[in-house]
Structures are given as C-alpha cells and as structure tokens.
Amino acid sequence: MTVRFKHALAVLTAFAGVVLSTHAIAAPQPIFFCQTIAQPGSYVLARNLTATGDCLSIAASFVTIDLDGFTIIGNGTGSGVVALRGAALRAIAVRNGFITGFAQAIQLSTSSGVTVERIHAAANTGDAIFAGDNATVRDSVAIGNGGTGIRLGQTALVTGNSAEENGFTGILVGIGGNIVGNTVGRNKGSGISTVEGAAIVNNVSRNNAADGIVTDCPSAVVANTTSNNLGQNLNVIGGVGCIVNDHNSTL
C-alpha cells in the first residue's frame, strides 16, 4: 500500500467519522413522558402520552416535534402542545399524529412561523389548532372540537385541511391569509372566516350554521364551492377591490 493511498484512506476514514458523528448529534431526541422542552432541536414521540393539564410545554424557539403516529390524550384541560407561559416563540413545528381530549390541541397563539402538518385534532373542548402570525397548517384534520377548528393570525397559509363539526368557525384567519384547497362543514359558526387581503381559493364549505365563506374586501375569492349554509353561502363584505370570479359555485 503506497503512502499516498494510505493518506487518502485516512482522510476518508476521518471524513466518515465526522459524518457519522454529525448524524448522531442531529438525531431527534425521544419523548417518553409529558415534559417541558427547553432547548432548540428535533424531538420525536416514542409512545402515546396521557396528560392532566398541559402535556408538551415549549420554552425555546426552533423546535420540531414529530408525534410519529402516536396520540397525546388529555383530561379536558390544558393543551397538548403549548408555548410555556404564553411565550412569543418562533419556528415551532408539530407533525404526524393525534391530539385529543384537551382544552386546545395546539396552543401557540403568541408564536410566529409555526408549522402544523398531518395533525388530527379531535374532541378538544376549545380551539383545536391555534397559532400566531405567518403560520402554516396543512394536511390536517380538526373535527368535533368545542371552539374553532383552525385559528391563525396574519399572513397565514391554510391548505389541504378538513375542519368539520366544530363548535365555532371551521377556519378563522387574520389579515392576508391564504386559504387554499380545504374542506369545511357542519361547523356551528361560519365555515371559513377571514378579513382583507385574503386569497380564498378552491375550498368547499357546506352545511355550516352561519356563512359558508365570509371575508372583507379587498380579497380574492376564486373557484370555491359553497352550499346549504344557514347564513350566506358567500358573504363578501365591502365589495370594493374584491376579485370574485364566476368559477365560484354557490348552491
């Protein structure tokens, strides 16, 4: 074996060691019990969790929680995932599991840049998914909760979700929201409710106890289907500066 070859092999071995070490450091930390998460990083549930009050309290920004298909179960109080003492956190992500039996499934209303994906929030006594400005909620289900299904602040994205049979509005979003490709129905308030600057595109809203879709102008309301709502199927307030095209279907 030549000196040059030995040197190259040593370099490759050292590089592989660095890669493996980095991978080990980056591995998600397992969660076995309800707890406070005080450090940034990735966390993954290792089993179902049962809580009295809050379960996962977050005290740091830049935290990702993967429920990995498991369920967090409450006793009717607290939140499944919550910002500790209402902290204004950033870049929290919650993914891939079920949250039921709390007052709120996810309570991050004072936090910005929250991402919620593939969460099934059911049978909570208040709002299901509640997050602040610049939040994204996609491919999730909010069904049979006592309050709003999905409630977000300004400039939020809500896409690919189902919000059904909730005690108030199905989807409620602040200024500049993008509400795209959702299905809402049988909520005790409006199906979709937002304010000016919204883009409401390709949603289905049926059989709600108030309006199917309600928004303020200026907004864009395009290619939605609304039917059998007890209020107005499509309620565009103000009428100035709104784009409401013929591709909306109201029955």
Question: What attributes does this structure have?
Answer:
19-stranded parallel sheet, mainly beta, 10% helix
Total helical elements: 1
List low-confidence stretches: 18-24
**Straight-line N-to-C gap:** 80 Å
What amount of the residues lies in strands?
Answer: 35-45%
Alpha-beta content class: mainly beta
Structure description:
- There is one protein chain.
- 40% of the residues are buried.
- The longest helix is centred in the N-terminal third of the chain and has 24 residues, at 3-26.
- The protein folds into two domains: 27-125; 135-251, no CATH class.
- It has a 19-stranded parallel beta sheet that branches. A ten-stranded parallel beta sheet has the order 2-5-8-10-12-15-18-21-24-27, with no helix packed on it.
- It has one helix spanning 3-26, and strands at residues 29-31, 35-37, 41-45, 49-50, 56-58, 63-66, 71-73, 79-83, 92-100, 104-108, 115-122, 129-131, 136-138, 141-143, 150-152, 157-159, 162-164, 171-173, 178-180, 183-185, 192-193, 199-201, 204-206, 213-216, 220-222, 225-227, 234-237, 243-244, 249-250.
- Mean pLDDT is 91; it is low at 18-24.
- Helix content is 10%, strand content 41%.
- It contains one helix and 29 strands.
- With 251 residues, the protein is mainly β.
